[in-house]
Amino acid sequence: MIGGPEAVKIEDQVQAAQTGMVEHRPHNQCLLCLRCLPEVDAMKLTNFRPWEERTNGAWAFYNDLHQKKELYFWGG
């Protein structure tokens, strides 16, 4: 298994995941997704804990946004 910024530069990881070059991108700052998914910037405004977002539908909403861009939201 090869991974990390040695294989794909951090700023290119989102696009690499979209195109299928890599299987998944590690969960790091949403800032890296802003170029292709500007909506993720609003995620920092939530008052809910991650486990609350999973039960109130926010997690599913985030994943729907990501899937439209050929990405998968693993969670916060």
Describe the protein.
The chain has 3 helices and no strands. The chain has helices spanning about 15-20, 50-55, 60-65. The two termini are about 25 Å apart. The relative contact order is 0.17.
Mean pLDDT: 77
Poorly predicted tracts of residues: none
Largest sheet, described in full?
Answer: none
The whole-angstrom Rg is 13 Å
Strand residue percentage:
under 5%
Number of helices: 3
Straight-line N-to-C gap = 24 Å
Number of DSSP E strands: 0
Structural class designation:
mainly alpha
One letter per element, helices H and strands E, the order comes to HHH
The general outline is elongated
What level of helicity do the residues show? 25-40%
Features:
mainly alpha; elongated; 76 residues
Summarize it:
With 76 residues, this protein is an all-alpha fold. It has helices at 13-19, 50-56, 58-67.
Secondary-structure blueprint:
Blueprint: H1 13-19, H2 50-56, H3 58-67
